[in-house]
From TrEMBL:
Protein's name according to its UniProt entry: Glutathione S-transferase
Record organism: Sulfitobacter brevis
UniProt KW keywords: Transferase
Domain spans labelled GST N-terminal: 1-81
Xref: InterPro entries: Glutathione-S-Trfase_C-like, Glutathione-S-Trfase_C_sf, Glutathione_S-Trfase, Glutathione_S-Trfase_N, Thioredoxin-like_sf
Keyword Thylakoid in annotation: no
Residues of the GST C-terminal domain: 86-221
């Protein structure tokens, strides 16, 4: 059976868990990283020598790097569906997945840490506004792209929507004022209709250290560890 190693609240693990559920795959979640540890073990180094999450094991095959895992799962289990068959459509999917990691993820994750993971008394309004502007600037490009298409690759949902869908959930759910992004908002509404997105991406972040610790502990009921 497929094994996914990681924590279900971790930003790079969420796309992998969403993909597996979108594909209807059976898997076991092996809780690792953060308070679950295990990354320093010799056994884990055989799965991911970077000692980071996520990683998967599919039979004898091990793979790390979240977006490589998303591509692998879609290629192996839904070629021609979530993984577009047409070479140029596939290239466009790859382009936006790379762009998600290089341009959109970075300001949004920093904005997330500057808000959700920083106690209100320690938050820096200038830093938050700067990160919000950077995130908005990046996502404006996606907004223009989505002007005349429902999903990133066109009329249907593909793997290209997955990393960006995770980024956008965080952006839309941190406590900041946001300028409008009408086409991204419409696309996000489509994503919220997908059960796997609702169950595995639209999760409460935990806003205090205690709440966060409780969420981490609750993960144990979702995994085999
Ligand atoms: N580029 C890598 C980044 C992996 C990464 O940064 N993982 C973080 C969690 S999001 C990690 O392993 N941190 C150590 C930990 O959680 O204990 C990927 O996309 O898989």
């Amino acid at each position: 059976m497929l094994e996914i190693w990681g924590r279900p609240y971790s930003s790079n693990v969420i796309p992998v868990i969403w993909t597996a559920n979108e594909l209807g795959l059976e898997y076991t979640l092996q809780l690792a990283g953060g308070s679950f540890g295990k990354l320093d073990t010799d056994d884990y180094a055989l799965i991911n020598p970077n000692r980071m999450i996520p990683a998967i094991r599919d039979g004898d095959f091990a793979l790390w790097e979240s977006l490589a895992i998303v591509r692998y799962l879609c290629d192996r289990y839904d070629a021609g569906g979530l993984s577009p068959k047409d070479t140029q459509t596939r290239a466009i999917a790859d382009q936006w997945m790379e762009w998600s990691a290089s341009k959109a993820f970075v300001p949004v994750i920093h904005l997330f840490f500057a808000t959700v993971r920083t106690q209100p008394t320690d938050r820096d309004p200038y830093k938050i506004a700067t990160l919000r502007d950077e995130a908005h600037g990046a996502l404006s490009l996606l907004d223009r792209h989505l002007t005349d298409r429902d999903y990133v690759c066109g009329a249907t949902f593909t793997m290209a929507d997955i990393p960006l869908g995770c980024v956008v959930y965080r952006y839309f759910n941190v406590d900041v004022d946001r300028p409008p992004l009408p086409h991204v908002e419409a696309w996000y509404q489509h994503l919220t209709e997908r059960p796997a997105y609702r169950d595995h991406v639209m999760r409460h972040f935990g806003t205090t250290p205690d709440e966060w610790a409780a969420l981490e502990k609750a993960c144990a009921s979702e995994g085999v560890n």
